[in-house]
Amino acid sequence: MLESKVVLITGGASGIGQATAKKLYEQGNVVIIADVKDLSIGFLKREYGEDKIYFYKCDTSSKSDVENLRTWIKENFGRLDYLVLSAGIMPLPCGIENITDDVMNKTIDVNIKGTFMCLKILGSLIKETSNEGSVVTLTSVDGLIGEPYGVIYSATKAAIISLTKSFARYYNDPIVRVNAVAPGLIDTPLTDSTGEDPSWTTDVSIIKRIGKAEEVANAIIFLLSNDSSFVTGHVLTVDGGFVLK
């Protein structure tokens, strides 16, 4: 359980990011949601409560946006303790035979460049201002096994695993732990947008059902917290045993 930390969640307006934001808020943390989706403060207050929840509109693929976000956090909160990088996209079409240059470039910009810039720019704020910093990135089982029908998405998620391990080694004095969660098929708007039939995944999983965003959020919070204080550079799969089959 985390309490009284300043936490930033990119891509926190929906799906896994939103589920994580809600749990962290309910535990008493100051939660900042950064997303390209324009959430009003009124929505946040109705959804979560009266205080300790904030929204900053940010395109994580834009270096200037991320730098401005860093400045805003430091000026308004003085520190950043935990960072969850759940912003990511899988635009269509994205298979080997039909992916377009625009889709390829956009996916790389958001998933790889955006993750790198957040790890570098926002991670440095954690290192500068927090005594027990922790970062969790969101990769995917597709980054572990490869997926021809989502080839560049899979490649970017594999790159996030490499970035996670690289930054875990980089942030070593003082230590900022950097870990990753690799979800399988989870019930989120991103999954819905692909039109994917969940049966092909769930039928070959050990736990034969689609996952819940809240279940991934629990894994993220574990890796953020001191319960995982001797864990860094690790990739935790939350996939119902899909990669084992």
Taken from the alpha-carbon principal axes, the silhouette is: globular
β-sheet strand percentage? 5-15%
SSE string, helix = H, strand = E? EHEHEHEHEHHEHHHE
Q: Determine Rg (CA atoms, Å).
A: 17 Å
Helix content: 40-55%
Structural class by sheet pairing and helices: alpha/beta
Distance between the termini: 32 Å
Average pLDDT = 90
Count helical runs: 9
The number of E-state strands comes to 7
Largest sheet: 7 strands, parallel
Low-confidence runs of at least 5 consecutive residues: none
Strand order of the largest sheet: 3-2-1-4-5-6-7
Key terms for this structure?
44% helix; alpha/beta; 245 residues; 7-stranded parallel β-sheet
Topology:
Blueprint: E1 6-10, H1 15-26, E2 30-35, H2 41-47, E3 53-57, H3 63-77, E4 82-85, H4 101-129, E5 134-138, H5 142-145, H6 151-170, E6 177-183, H7 189-194, H8 199-202, H9 213-224, E7 235-238
Parallel strand pairs: 1-2, 1-4, 2-3, 4-5, 5-6, 6-7
